[in-house]
């Protein structure tokens, strides 16, 4: 005798019918859950007021009067570009010396964040009209080249900080991904700066303003530095990551006690003694941008970190003798660490509607041939 379900295999009570009901109910719950999720997302979006101001602090009161504000070296201005629309979503600003390195990093980040690009398009250098720096935008990440030395990075930071302020950005994090000269460390090592020190080993960036010396603190964000260090995977990574103090100099040659510059008024012995003495004080590397980078981001209430790749051990020599293939392979190392951080932060977002927005064709990447967005 067939069961209520009409099935010949079960009789009396109808497990088939029950099964079907359970399946239907499950489907109903699943689809209602989906609708509910969408509703909550839309409500969240509806309730979320666009921010009135950026979280950037301490800026010049004169900015209010600049209409338009011309970011001369970036080739942009607030009259012809809608900054909140183009840059309002920026959460990470990654900076490195050369345009090519930062373009390669932009493509890496695109892959890491699973942002897709139409195969016929390429990323666009948005700072091309300024003829100075290169700037690529990939979703919430800006990848910018800063050139060499404190003056170059300082000019760029003034304009980037104003840009993010005009764009009403919220809590952006700045990371310099650079190269450095190591002190007693192997070339290829990744160094996270715990502190940025000037040539006198003081944690300051010195600027002469109106004929007077002004000192700005060049302390770096310890939590961010430790967080980046925690993302190293010693048993998996093909490189070592260490943390230590960085001396920032105004010169690559004499400023970093090299013997191979055009001029040299000291001896090999005094060079070795100097390197040993700074090493004893916890210094692990030299660079040429970290004090200005730390000081300007500090002044703006922006969290920042410096992650560099060591290209020479200064205890062993001055010239960069590693083959170009090695250098270009090592270049990826600090990028791996920073990409891990960005990916982790990006996925942490509670508002998954943003992730959806980035998933498709990367609408927030600035592409060659496109308009600003
Ligand atoms: N950058 C520096 O400032 N010094 C080096 O030795 C290498 C890179």
Automatic annotation (TrEMBL):
Pathway note: Pyrimidine metabolism; UMP biosynthesis via salvage pathway; uracil from uridine (phosphorylase route): step 1/1
Q: Keywords in UniProt for this one?
A: Glycosyltransferase, Transferase
Show where the Nucleoside phosphorylase domain sits: 92-343
Q: Which residues bind phosphate?
A: 132, 176-179
Q: What's this protein's name?
A: Uridine phosphorylase
Q: What is its EC number?
A: 2.4.2.3
Known function: Catalyzes the reversible phosphorylytic cleavage of uridine to uracil and ribose-1-phosphate which can then be utilized as carbon and energy sources or in the rescue of pyrimidine bases for nucleotide synthesis. Shows broad substrate specificity and can also accept deoxyuridine and other analogous compounds.
InterPro entries hit by this protein: Nucleoside_phosphorylase_CS, Nucleoside_phosphorylase_d, Nucleoside_phosphorylase_sf, Uridine_phosphorylase_euk
Q: Which reaction does it catalyse?
A: uridine + phosphate = alpha-D-ribose 1-phosphate + uracil
Question: Which BP terms does GO give this entry?
Answer: nucleotide catabolic process; UMP salvage; uridine catabolic process
- Please name the NCBIfam families in this protein's record: euk_UDPppase (TIGR01719)
Q: Which organism is it from?
A: Drosophila pseudoobscura pseudoobscura
**Record-level GO cellular component terms:** cytosol
Q: Which domain of life is it from?
A: Eukaryota
Residues holding substrate: 256, 258
One matching Pfam family:
PNP_UDP_1
What family classification does the UniProt entry report for this protein? Belongs to the PNP/UDP phosphorylase family.
Q: What's one GO MF term for it?
A: uridine phosphorylase activity
Q: Does this UniProt record's set of keywords contain Transferase?
A: yes
Instruction: Kindly indicate whether the keyword Transferase belongs to this entry.
Output: yes
């Amino acid at each position: 005798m067939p069961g209520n379900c009409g099935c010949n295999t079960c009789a009396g009570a109808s497990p088939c019918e029950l099964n079907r009901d359970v399946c239907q109910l499950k489907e109903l719950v699943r689809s209602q859950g989906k609708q509910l999720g969408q509703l909550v997302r839309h409500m969240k979006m509806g309730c979320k007021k666009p921010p009135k101001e950026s979280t950037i602090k301490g800026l010049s009161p004169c900015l209010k009067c600049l209409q338009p504000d011309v970011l001369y070296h970036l080739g942009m201005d607030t009259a012809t570009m809608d900054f909140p629309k183009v840059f309002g979503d920026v959460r990470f600003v990654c900076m490195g010396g050369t345009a090519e390195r930062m373009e390669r990093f932009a493509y890496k980040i695109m892959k890491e964040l699973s942002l897709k690009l139409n195969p016929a398009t390429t990323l666009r250098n948005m700072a091309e009209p300024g003829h100075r720096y290169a700037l690529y935008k990939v979703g919430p990440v800006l990848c910018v080249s800063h050139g060499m030395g404190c003056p170059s990075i300082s000019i760029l930071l003034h304009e980037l900080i104003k840009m993010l302020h005009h764009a009403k950005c919220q809590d952006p994090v700045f990371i310099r991904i650079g190269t450095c000269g190591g002190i007693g460390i192997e070339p290829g090592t990744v160094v996270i700066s715990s502190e940025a020190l000037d040539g006198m080993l003081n944690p300051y960036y010195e600027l002469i303003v109106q004929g007077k010396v002004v000192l700005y603190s060049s302390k770096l964000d310890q939590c961010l530095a430790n967080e980046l260090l925690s993302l190293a995977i010693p048993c998996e990574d093909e490189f070592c990551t260490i943390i230590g103090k960085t001396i920032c100099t105004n010169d690559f040659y004499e400023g970093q006690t090299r013997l191979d510059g055009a001029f040299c008024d000291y001896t090999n012995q005094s060079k070795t003694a100097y390197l040993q003495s700074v090493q004893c004080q916890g210094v692990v590397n030299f660079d040429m941008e970290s004090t200005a980078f730390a000081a300007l981001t500090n002044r703006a209430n922006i969290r920042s970190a410096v992650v560099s790749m060591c290209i020479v051990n200064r205890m062993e020599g001055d010239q960069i003798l590693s083959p170009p293939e090695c250098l270009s392979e090592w270049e990826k190392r600090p990028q791996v660490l920073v990409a891990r951080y960005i990916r982790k932060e990006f996925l942490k977002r509670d508002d998954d509607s943003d992730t959806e927005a980035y998933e498709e064709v990367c609408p927030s990447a600035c592409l060659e041939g496109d308009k600003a967005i």
